[in-house]
Structures are given as C-alpha cells and as structure tokens.
Write a structure and sequence with these properties.
globular, alpha+beta, HIT family, subunit A, 9-stranded antiparallel β-sheet
Length: about 350
C-alpha cells in the first residue's frame, strides 16, 4: 500500500509505502536477486546468464502507474492522494563485486544513454512531473542490496529540493537575466580552490555552501536543462568525470566510500524551465575515515546543516585523491581522464 499525504505546515507531500517493510534485505551474495540467473531453482530479476545494463520496475515501489486507493479519507487541510508514478531499478552491470568506479568510460557512457532514454520515456507520461535519477551506495546510506545499481523515481509532483532550486534560479534569472548555476560555476572556476576535477564539458566542485564534508557537484560548463540536451561528446565527458569523482572517493580513505548520487534536471511537466541547469550532487556520509556525518537535531529538526570541515580543505584532499586514482589506474578508455582535456587538464592535475 502506498499513498501521498499532504503536510500543510511544510507544504510538501509525504509518501507512505508500508509494503516496503518487506523488501529484500542484504541477502547472501549467492542469492542476490540482481545478479543474472545462474540456477533455475533460484530465479532472479534477470532471467539470463549475463547482461550489460538492465532496467526493470521496482518490486517494492513508492509510486505505481496504477496506484492503490488511499486507506484514509482526507480533509480540506489534511489532503490525501493516490501515489501515482513509476519506480525503476537500473542495474549497472552483472558483476556483483564491482562499484560505479570500476565501470569503464564506455560502459558509463552507455549507462548515460539508458538514463537519457528513461528520462525521456517516463517524463512523457501525462501524470509525471519530475524524473529523479539517483544511486544509494553503501551500508552507511542504508542500502539493502549491494549489487551495483541505481534507481529512478518518476514523481507526480516536483520534489521539494528541486522545486526550491528552481524557485531560486527563477528569481536570479528575473533579477539579473542570467542563470544562477552558470554564475555559481563561473565563480568556482575563477576561484579554483574548491575545484576537484574538470574536463572540456564538465566541472566537479565542492560547493562553497557544502552541507556534507565531501559533497561534490558535477555541473556542465554550458547551459543544459537535462540529459536530452547532451551530444555524444558531452555524454562521454560526463562519463569521464563521474568515473573520476567516484574513483577519487574510493582513494580518499582507502575504502569504497558510501554516498548518495542525485541527478537534478528540468521538470517534465508543462512550463518554462529555461532557468533550470542540469547537475549531479554527491553526498558522502563520511566526515573522516572512521566518523559518519549523522543528521541530528539541528539538521533533521531545524533544517540547518553543520559542516565539520572547510570546503576548501576537503576539495584539496579530493583533488589529490582523484589525481592518485587517475595516475594509478589508467586504462586506454581513461587516458582522456588523466591527461590533456580530462580530469587534470584544466583542473585537478594542475592543482595537486
């Protein structure tokens, strides 16, 4: 059962999804439901002996194309609606023991093509307003299945954080005639101290206002609204910088760093979204190798983050980690990410 309940105080929807209590939780590796089917007596979600990338509907969705009826009746203040939408799972690879950073650039480029296809198709549904593509990685984030995968939530509304971003961007456009995200990126590139990696089309920075200690935002250098605006070269550049950032994370403390990766792009409902600017935000939860950044009273109750680190210092550490990763693990597909126009071409390598 799932439904949407309106919070009239914060003016946002809350989704109840009680059936998700029964979803698969950390099964043994040889019983992973996201691996290819190896034994017919234990069928998985992929009835084949191998695959490259697979997308399927989540078996424990928060939203459904044909939603359940709400179990309660709403009022004029406490509104309730069916949770109509789509939840999908994206399997990055059939190799269980890998992570995003282990994928080669060609494979990540293909994954970006898959993301683009799903954004286009799901966004075309008349009941979908926003397509959120994301990845949860690691125990610290609460992951229940460790096979490398991401998710897509197609919302019947624009979620609160993207909605607030769009509001700020619209106000900035009206006041200055410019894109807020373009202006922010220009300042980060001019300053350079919080720059983590850069190539011909994208830059990765620890933002000036980072909430998490090693938070990174990946932003296109030209104004793009969504994945639909990228050409082949830009998709490959995005693949290179995503591999660079995730490799840097794993080299930061010497273990596979848990994180959330969230893709922000234009809503798919009708409207003028020219002030939107595509970007991807990474939220690692570690503040040191042995300490987690927990969201306690000030963050969860007050909505104000307390960052225990300086973005300038964490960016410096991440630049060094990205450079070490590129230097130690260069393959033919990654050469562009370690030399010339790649990770260090106009960013990390020059500032190590």
């Amino acid at each position: 059962m799932s439904e949407m309940r309106w919070n009239p105080v914060l003016k946002q929807w809350v989704v109840t999804a009680t059936h998700r209590q029964d979803r698969t939780y950390k099964p043994p590796e040889n019983f992973c439901p996201l691996c290819p089917t190896r034994d017919e007596s234990f069928p998985t979600e992929v009835p084949d002996s191998g695959y490259e990338i697979v997308v399927f509907e989540n078996k424990f969705p928060s939203f459904r194309p044909v939603p359940h009826r709400p179990v309660v009746a709403g009022t004029d203040i406490l509104r309730v609606k069916p949770a109509q939408g789509v939840c999908e799972v994206v399997l990055y690879t059939d190799e269980h023991e890998t992570t995003f950073r282990d994928l080669d650039v060609d494979h990540i480029t293909n994954l970006i093509e898959v993301w683009t296809d799903r954004y286009r198709e799901l966004g075309s549904l008349d009941y979908i307003d926003y397509v959120l593509i994301f990845e949860n990685k690691g125990d610290a984030v609460g992951v229940t299945l460790h096979h490398p995968h991401g998710q897509i939530y197609a919302f019947p509304f624009v979620p609160p954080i993207p909605a607030r971003e769009l509001e700020s961007a619209r106000e900035h456009r009206e006041a200055t005639g410019r894109c807020l995200f373009c202006d922010l990126l220009k300042q980060e590139l001019d300053d350079g101290v919080r720059l983590v990696a850069s190539n011909s089309h994208f830059a990765a920075v620890v933002p000036f206002y980072a909430r998490y200690p090693y938070e990174v935002h990946v932003t296109p250098k030209s104004h793009k609204l969504s994945l639909l605006d990228f050409g082949c070269d830009e998709k490959r550049s995005l693949a290179e910088i995503l591999k660079a950032v995730t490799s840097g994370y794993d080299n930061l403390f010497g273990f596979s760093l848990p994180y959330m990766m969230i893709m922000h792009q234009a809503p798919t409902c009708e409207g003028d979204w020219s002030h939107s600017h595509f970007h991807i935000e990474f939220y690692p939860l570690h503040r040191t190798a042995t300490k987690i950044k927990y969201l306690a009273g000030c963050e969860s109750g007050g909505g104000t983050f307390i960052n225990d680190t300086l973005p300038e210092e964490t960016a410096e550490a991440l630049r060094a980690a990205v450079y070490r990763a590129a230097s130690a693990d260069v393959t033919p597909a990654d050469v562009g990410a370690a030399e010339g126009e790649g990770v260090g071409g106009d960013g990390a390598g020059g500032r190590r």
